[in-house]
Design a protein that fits this description.
Blueprint lengths: L3 H27 L2 H6 L22 E2 L4 E2 H10 L11
Antiparallel strand pairs: 1-2
Length: about 90
Amino acid sequence: MARKSLIAREAKRRKMIERFAKKRQELKEKGEYAKLHLLPKNSSRTRLKNRCTISGRPRGYMRFFGISRIAFRELASEGEITGVKKASW
């Protein structure tokens, strides 16, 4: 599991992105890049890192499900994910 501080930092970034999204969009449309530069760095969408919603793991993230490959495998084995079953041949 990822450190709690990293998960909290990502949550803080998500809030900041939501808060400044409209203002960033307006400044980009106007072409006022000097004012855009004055906004907080963490208000940019490119600063986000996809993390597993269960464990906070940043690697092996499956975008369609929003979880890491390890959490996906555990949930799929338990039958918790609809439409997914273990392959056997």
